[in-house]
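Two folds, back to back.
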Amino acid sequence: MCKDLMNQSQHLQRVVDHFTTEQIANNRLQLKATIFIVRYLAFQAIAFRGRDESFSSLNRENFHESLGIVTFWNKKVAEIIEKAPKNATYTSPRIQKEILHVFSAKVKKAIREEIGDAKFCIMVDEACDESMKEQMAVVFRYVDAEGFVKERFFGLIHVVDTAALTLKKRIYSLLSQYCLDIQNIRGASCKRNEQLKVANANEIAPLIDLEELEIGSGLNQIGTLQRPGETHSQLQELNYRFNEDAMELLRLSSALEPREALKSFRISDLCLLVKNFYPQDFTDYDKQVLEKELYHFEHNVVQDPEFKKLKSLSELSQWLVRTGNSEHYKLVYRMVILVLTLPISTATTERAFSAMKLVKTELRNKMEDDFLNDSLMLYIEKDIASTFSLDSIVDDFKDLKERRVPFS
């Protein structure tokens, strides 16, 4: 008798466990359908909501119409949604925004991890959105662990005014929120005429006005450092547009550029570059060792047949990491990434505002700042967001707060 009761109990437990497992799988599938649509709409900068989303509407607008396509081709999803409790369909505007925020938070976390302890530059610009709010776009420029130069959009911040002090406070707050060390800043620039000075960045490395660097004669768009133009008119233009410090920085840094190094590897210029512009990044001992390391670099690396194929400083950075020379010549590689960290263009911040015009249109001018910011993170950094699995988004969504149905 006892054995029969035990067997019945175990059978009942298996039925309950099976039901729970099946229900959880269904709940996750239902939520993944919503996540899939949110991601698609955000990637394409398409509006989520419409004027009339009622069941009787012939056009329930993009989210619900997209959901209709998914359920038309996936009968299991359609069945699950149909049977779901009315208070747990996970398709409401609030849920859509929560999913979008999960994506955005994961993108920022990935960027923060990519930066790591690297030195970085802050690039900011301001513009008014469709509702005439002043927005500040923040972009980080840095070299990642594989030697690639990255410029990552890190968010849009609403500011009450564009005074330097206001911008500085908001940037400090952002850095603190993501545990980014102010001491790692190696440049902070604003597209406006005045420079934006953050902490002691102006003492650590030169701050160059982005308006000046846009002429491209000193730095081109792919990170290749070149000597100023050879003609008299080009030299006059450079002298007019750049201050003396910027001109000296460009001249000394050009010694690192592969094509220049092949002509004449100017060791004295590189030692002077460290002394004049990066004293905080090299100890006294480093400076003593640097000249010897540069000598070995000239004879062992610059003469490498593969080195002769390199066309830019960014290519050199990647090649040094790929070949392991970034470890053998640490001081040289440190110089390379510090120079590459300098801002050379306003293109990324300008693209952010172009994206803002696509997302916050005249018909969507009441978008909240958080919704706008999260939408832009996915649209601009979709190469990162696209790497996240739907299941990982479900798990993070579940952890935001207590949910009505189980997802694990």
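---
second:
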Amino acid sequence: MCGIAGIFHCGTAKPVDPLRVERMCDVLAHRGPDGSGVWTAPGVGLGHRRLSIIDLAGSPQPMHAADGGAVIVFNGEIYNYRELRRELERDGAQFRTDGDTEVILAAWQRWGVDCLERLNGMFAFALYDCRTRSLFLARDRFGVKPLFMAHLSDGSLAFASELKGLLAHPLLRREADPLAIEDYLAWGYVPDHRSILKGVEKLPAGHFRLLRHDAPPAAPQRWWQLSFAERHRGKPRDLEAELLHHMREAVTSRMVADVPLGAFLSGGVDSSSVVALMAEASREPVRTCSIGFDVASADETSHAARVAELFGTSHEARRVSADQFGQIDTLAALFDEPFADASALPTWRVCQLAREKVTVALSGDGADEAMAGYRRQVFFAHEERVRALLPAPLRRHVLGPLGQLYPKADWAPRPLRAKATLLALAEDAEHAYARSLAVAGPERRAALYSRDFARRIGGYRAEQPFMETMRSAPARSGLDRAQYADLTFWLPGDILTKVDRTSMAVGLEAREPLLDHRLVSFAAALPERMRVQGGQGKYLLKQAMRRYLPDDILFRPKQGFVTPIADWLRGPLAGQARGIAASAALARTGWFDTIAVSRLAEQHISGRFDNSRILWQLLMLDRSLVRLGITG
């Protein structure tokens, strides 16, 4: 696990200053505290910061192929590198190291671009082929590892693991993209199709770029796509056994490391399943850690402690309280771009806790997206059945007006909160699912914008790319399309970004076994009744894990890693909420109606409405603008 950066000249081969590449890498030192290196040649420079996980002393980077024909900088882990190495050795390849980096070099020289299909892992890498004088940039299937890129005024392409690596380049412009602000206000993060800065791109998950000195920059090309278009046939017992086989393979393959290894344990189904399978495969007690909160309704540490006791793990737990938000500027700095998933704070804290004992930690991320574990997915599956029964005009002209009249009752028991359901049924599936996922709907965002900013974004709405993702999904049902959008839009932009930045900030490698592409592809072909049944998501996963976990862990209501930010913004952080509208950084942009923002804060503090998520978004946006030096 590492940080990479570099510069490549398209259309020419101008010299690259190694000190410039070095500065880009220096700001990524947190990603790789164990070593560094820079290599340059006419028209290209590659830089690397190393966190040693496998072959601790023998795999420095940038790494040259044995014959000197290629050079690579690599961030990630290839879990099947030993099998690939044996296959390549049979074809005559020779290796000088025991790690996975040299295997990628040999795989490129043997199979070219097709080597990507053979890699099972998380990765972002830049490989320069000295013979063809071309640069090969690639990102893993789900976007676990990030890669930012920017075309600069001198004709070069700069790239780095984090935006801060590009910010270290003096030619990078710092002008905000107004469409990214619209995206951020909708989702709470800047999705992978956009960047907060104009001119900066993110290489999409499952894509590569092949660039040459003697040709214009080539666009990214897709090399892998998840499909929901097939369906498994078979008895539930057989599907259950196959799922468990894939899960065991995924977990055990990610337990390979030459450094101490452990796991995050929340006490939920996913992390508990990972810990159970780790304990099954390990001779030593598994090291586990968890984070709780000072608000009882959001605290899961008792469930985590129970699972830890069940499997005899070496467990540690700590709590997060509102007074720890004094480090909000540090939190904003981890992400560079504005990022408002409030669970980033406890995720960062649990990474800090884990790093005290281990260098690698396995997580349960990915199962909700892959196996329909989110409440919104279960609701959406039910709504789709209703949509199939009721004609569109009836839904639009009867349920829509009824939903508009129905009171918004955040305080009421969940069965009485019918407003959102009625409005969702009145819309088409893509609109409804986008609205269920958004932090703030289009009407609410529009009410916050100044007139000038509304003109700048024109007719663009953040939901449009999300809905297009759903419509173009290789899928057979509405639930398929919703899960596909979660896995390709939400997962890389929110969940994986959160885990990558918070873990790398403390020099910890996080691994996501439940995102093994073979496991996810298997889950995508499960019949819907094996994903959602009896009002429960992740049906087959829960059935498969009943041999390991008690029912009150498997079937208790999903709690999620939810920070009690609503309580905090009404209590110890109320002053922070009131100060948002008057913030100098936000005011200088001219993007927002300050009266509308003040009204949000007062409504929330009084308890009349829960505006915590959008207030937190504005607070994190303010801190990011200060860090990026953006004034509008």
